Amino acid sequence: MAQLTYRESVSLAIAQAMRKDPKVFFIGEDVGAAGGVFKATVGLLDEFGKDRVMDTPISEQAILGAAMGAAMAGLRPIAEIMFSDFLAVCWDIVANQIAKTRYMSDGQINIPLVIRTANGGGSKFGAQHSQSLENWSMMIPGLKVVAPSSPGDVLGLMNSSVKDPDPVIFYEHKSLYASKEELESTELSIPLGQANVLHEGSDITIIGLALMAQRAKKAAVELKEKHNINAKVIDLRTLVPLDLQSIKSAINETGLAMTVEENPRLCGWGAEISSLITEHCFTNLKGPVTRLTTPHVPLPSADILEDNTIPSVDVIVREVIKKVKGE
Fold first, then answer.
1. Catalytic annotation, pick one of 129, 199, 227, 280
2. In this structure, what DSSP letter does residue 95 have?
3. Under CATH, what is the fold of the domain 196-324?
């Protein structure tokens, strides 16, 4: 039995991939000597050396350009973009080059790379360093989108991401880095496209991702203990591929659905989930799908403002009670 933090599991997952496959290498800003700005890659440079753990200049275009070229040549890079917000700087490479090359080459060129990036709010870093951008990448054909919510999921999903023949964007939530989990084994593999039920229940289905999945789980515990409401909580874990079967099964059982999203309401990932639920489960729905999101504003940096912008456990509990009781 081992206790790992989310932060430690990132470093371990990368090390495991590099030990198993000499074609895997790691590249990014301050990932080597500094151990990463969030200290999630400590020890990798010491173990694997500068040939496989490469510190780069401050250039997101250079990082992903180098990673793409290496992947085209047969290597399996793991590239770090320090903050997911910085994907905007190199989005052409991601959306127009990395995502489309396999298709445009008629399958002759694969791009087996993983783009790791720190995502989400809760750290009061302000509007340009706090966004949750999973929905940006989920709508680009050719990309796979992963967002683990626990140390075990980091290990299992990174293992599958590195082995995948297609490019994967691996969103690590900054507010989860300090979270801990007891693991019976650290040799884990979780297939991409397999959701996880964090809490069983029959009154309502709450669907979350990353930090929101963990907050939904805490809310479900409170709802059961204090309000006699049994909520099923689904942690999607990956948006592409999406585990639609688990969503359908849960909704057909409970009849009520709520998404909890750390993104603005307009075009958030929950809008697509809501559409799919309406399309596939309409006759079993007892009411419309409810979406909890951030307001359509840049995330503030002031403590009280950010705390009131991102869906909290209290907000989830309050909205579930209203929905289940028909208020």
1. 129
2. I
3. Rossmann fold (3.40.50)
Active site residue 199: no
Q: Chain-centre distance of CA 216, in angstroms?
A: 15
Rounded CA gap, 327 and 319, in Å?
9
Residue owning tokens 């590195």: 162
Per-residue pLDDT of the chain (327 residues), as tens digits, is 789 999 999 999 999 999 999 999 999 999 999 999 999 999 999 999 999 999 999 999 999 999 999 999 999 999 999 999 999 999 999 999 999 999 999 999 999 999 999 999 999 999 999 999 999 999 999 999 999 999 999 999 999 999 999 999 999 999 999 999 999 999 999 999 999 999 999 999 999 999 999 999 999 999 999 999 999 999 999 999 999 999 999 999 999 999 999 999 999 999 999 999 999 999 999 999 999 999 999 999 999 999 999 999 999 999 999 999 877
Separation of first and last alpha carbons in the chain: 45
CB burial readout 258-285, b (16+ within 10 A) else e = bbbbbbbeeebbbbbbbebbeeebeeeb
DSSP label of 78: E
CA distance 321 to 327: 8
Tokens of 49: 């050396």
Q: What CATH fold (topology level) applies to the domain 2-183?
A: Rossmann fold (3.40.50)
Q: Give yes or no on whether 2-183 and 196-324 have one common fold.
A: yes
Per-residue three-class SS string for 296-316: CCCCCCCHHHHHCCCCCHHHH
DSSP-based helix, strand, coil % in the chain, nearest 5: 40, 20, 40
